[in-house]
Amino acid sequence: MAKIIGAKKSLWQQVCEEYEAEQPSPPSVVWTDSSSVSTQLSQYSASTHSTVLIGLTTAEVFVDDDPLRDFDPLWHPPGLGKPRPPGQKCPSTAATRSPPQLHGGPVKRFLESRVFPVLLPGLEALLTEAQKHGCFEKKKTAFNPCDFLTEWLYNHNPRRREQVPVNFHDIPFVQHWLSMHPRPPIPLFLLLSKDQAALLIQAFWRGYKIRARPDVQELRQWQKELRENSDIAKTVEQFWAQRESRVGSAMTDIPESPQPANADVSIQVVPPTPRAPWSTPPR
């Protein structure tokens, strides 16, 4: 890939370059067969020969000694049950003992001075809020840590110091994103508490026990047949229409009684309020 000279590097590229610069360089000396120590068959011991400890072909192991004293995990990978290649060079002890030189790059200084002072308090508030929602006790909760951290960072922005805190769903870029990528609804078992869930289960069980009674089953069967054979809603509507017409005609036939001249009370006859078509007519 062609590399553009003078192009501005991204933050991720700078972090990768600094990380590669901090890693120790591999040794350049080539291992030869002449420099290796030949191991005779009579010198082999299962306690002293290991593919992990490269270079320690034979050694006297004491009881109170540390067998990993000269072992460096940077240059001795875990053994896979295979002998050491003849062309591999074992690095010297001085090279393995030198720690990698860490230097503070611009990216590291930027993270320590700008990012971490803002992010670490947000993570602390996130852990406190997660503990309130029982995230450390339950396997699944309705608490979304990314949503909380987004809302916390948005409200604690120094540019919004004098403004009123807003909810997560009221943030402009959140509304724009959710309008293009709507989320599925949260399951009901994550929204209800234990008391609310117990109340719903008990109400359903009580209703089931009532509906299972023989007299209630007979009543429900009769109502089903009545709905299938006749339009009960239309029958009730016609009944109340007839009653209202009768009451209206009776009110128009009542003669008005003369009132005295000094009477201050006026009486007004109001027809009855029509009922809903689904209400049951009186017997």
Task: Provide an overview of this structure.
The N and C termini lie far apart (about 95 Å). The protein has helices spanning about 10-20, 95, 105-130, 145-155, 170-180, 190, 195-210, 215-230, 230-255. The protein has about 280 residues and is an all-alpha fold. It is elongated, with a radius of gyration of 43 Å. The chain is built from nine helices and no strands. Among the domains are: about 115-190, no CATH class; about 190-235. About 45% of the residues lie in helices and about 0% in strands.
What attributes characterize this protein structure?
single chain, 9 helices, 0% strand
Helices and strands in order:
Blueprint: H1 11-22, H2 93-97, H3 106-132, H4 145-155, H5 172-180, H6 188-191, H7 194-211, H8 214-229, H9 232-253
Helix pairs in contact: 3-4
Protein name: IQ motif containing K
Biased composition (Pro residues): 271-283
Region (Disordered): 75-103, 247-283
Counting DSSP H or I runs of 4 or more residues, the number of helices is: 9
Compute the separation of the termini in Å.
93 Å
Measured by DSSP, the beta-strand proportion falls in: under 5%
Please count the beta strands (DSSP E, at least 2 residues each): 0
Main beta sheet: none
Name the poorly predicted regions.
38-42, 53-57
User: Helix and strand succession?
Assistant: HHHHHHHHH
Output the radius of gyration. Answer: 43 Å
Structural class: mainly alpha
Rounded mean pLDDT score: 74
Percent range of helical residues? 40-55%
Shape: elongated
